[in-house]
Amino acid sequence: MQKSQLCPKFEKAMSILSKRWTGLVIYQLLSGPQRFCTIESAIGISGRLLSDRLKHLEEEGIVKREVYPETPIRIEYSLTEKGLALQPLMKELEIWSQNWVTSEDTL
Amino acid sequence: MQKSQLCPKFEKAMSILSKRWTGLVIYQLLSGPQRFCTIESAIGISGRLLSDRLKHLEEEGIVKREVYPETPIRIEYSLTEKGLALQPLMKELEIWSQNWVTSEDTL
DNA sequence: TATACTTACTTACGAAAAGTAACTAAGGTA
DNA sequence: TACCTTAGTTACTTTTCGTAAGTAAGTATA
Question: Quick one: closest CA in A to B50, which residue?
């Protein structure tokens, strides 16, 4: 097996998107900043994995985390400029899914 | 944990793209029909997983497989219309990666 | 005839990641 | 003190991945 011949930047971008749940987390955050439990129930991910994904997306500079010391505590996750820049891509995926994914596909 | 509130078609589309390697396989096939071993070395995937991914993409109607009984045998994989329709999305990912992925990110 | 070569896979198996559920920590409330 | 809320973490099982070796079909070579 050989090393890939692809552009490393593209490969990196794809590796972020092709990790399970990360795409959906980003998509969900495109509708605005929100807290942990909101994302959790919106996309149906478990706390264990959401915690992991948010941590990685923060490290990648795609998501930022802000703490509001209210009662009960509020921690909001939102997209950085880098994260928001994925909007056109998500739009294309919406278009493709509407045009090509049938209702039988979703069963 | 609750069920997701997202559009099922979009979720399905994302599930295809967020399975490891599928995005790269589709991207690679955008440059034209090609055989198993070409894809294998171009993106650095193992035969075991490439076989699995091509089978699934065929089931999804994104990839088609054609056998040419030459010597040695030639089996070509190419994108269907549904697969080709992912080109704009891949273009957006290229743009994003060029704008936002740094060379340090790729280390 | 037997051995080897090519492509396109498949099988076996240990390692890594994901899924589920229960648990913890911090802060406030009854 | 006991309990509630959010935001996680831990423990454990199941699924998926990665690596390497093996198989099958069809030539070609010694």
Answer: A1
Bases of chain D below 7 A from a protein C-beta are 4-11, 16-22, 25-28
Dump pLDDT digits (tens) for A64-78. Answer: 999 998 888 899 999
Tell me the nearest-neighbour CA distance from B93 into chain A, angstroms: 6
Burial of A82 (0-12, 13-18, 19+ CB in 10 A): middle
| CA separation for the pair A79, A64 (Å, rounded) | 6
Q: How far apart are CA B63 and CA B40, in angstroms?
A: 15
Complete domains list, chain B, with CATH = 13-98 (1.10.10.10)
Mean pLDDT of chain B: 94
Please identify every stretch of chain A with a pLDDT value under 50, giving residue numbers as ranges: 1
